[in-house]
Amino acid sequence: MRLDKLTAALQAALGDAQSLAISRDHNQLDPLHLLAVWLKPSDAVMAPLLRQAGVPIPQVQKELEIALADLPRMIRHTGDVVPSPELVKVLNLADKLAQQKKTTALLPVNGLCWRCLIATLPQASCCCAAV
What we know:
The protein is mainly α. It has helices spanning 8-23, 31-38, 46-52, 57-70, 85-100, 112-120, and strands spanning 28-29, 82-83. The longest helix has 16 residues, at 8-23.
């Protein structure tokens, strides 16, 4: 995956997701962290799009909080956070879709990352899986 293909918005979201992982003593950056960032009301791009798409944001946030709490925690965090295999899969799938659509950048707003992210969620019955 070429990081230079990520938009500034997606790079910022990944940075915020990394900060969230560190604050929760997680040593891996997971798609759940990225989803949590995108569901924040302060996200001027994704939150409105997700609401418009009919995603029940409050319900997803509750489920997401439970899933984040279930992730392994480091007892003594070293500050090292690596992308989880699931996050790498999400970004690779988004890259593949972008190539198929001949998109020059991985845009979170075009739904590519969102769809790939949903595909990796642990529960197929998640309230947003049908989106």
